[in-house]
Design goal:
Length: about 160
Amino acid sequence: MDKIIVIGCGGAGKSTFSRKLSNLLDIPVYHLDKLFWNKGWIETPQKEFNKKIKEVISKDKWIIDGNYIKTIDIRAKDADTIIFINMPTYICLYRIFKRRFMYRGKSRPDMADDCPEGIDIEFFKWVLSYNKKIRPEILKKLSLYKEKNIVVLNGRKEVKKFLEG
């Protein structure tokens, strides 16, 4: 495992998992939120975002965490391993609210500077509907990459076991 994608719902634990995996494997981690968002929650235009991703995947080793379904194919093409953290909706919701209070008024470590943590109704709805609407799209996409090492981690116990193994 040298080139790894970590995907899953907001609040699934992608960034925490990626940092732990980075420490275990001594591979740098890149957070898509940090590449996509600019100060003050300004989005990076898609072409520029794709260019940033291509710069990362040109490196010898990397872990990239984040969803951004529009860029999965760009990342998956060069990845050797795709890890999907499949968490129940209630855990994801709990974690996004927990992180809102943990980082109130400041940016998370996996987010661009000057993007204070918050929850807007759009993001809340996205997390709420992820397992019904987006997870099937992700699983369909993953089925196209049979030559890759695809790991689906269902719940906290499987995540913990994977990191311990």
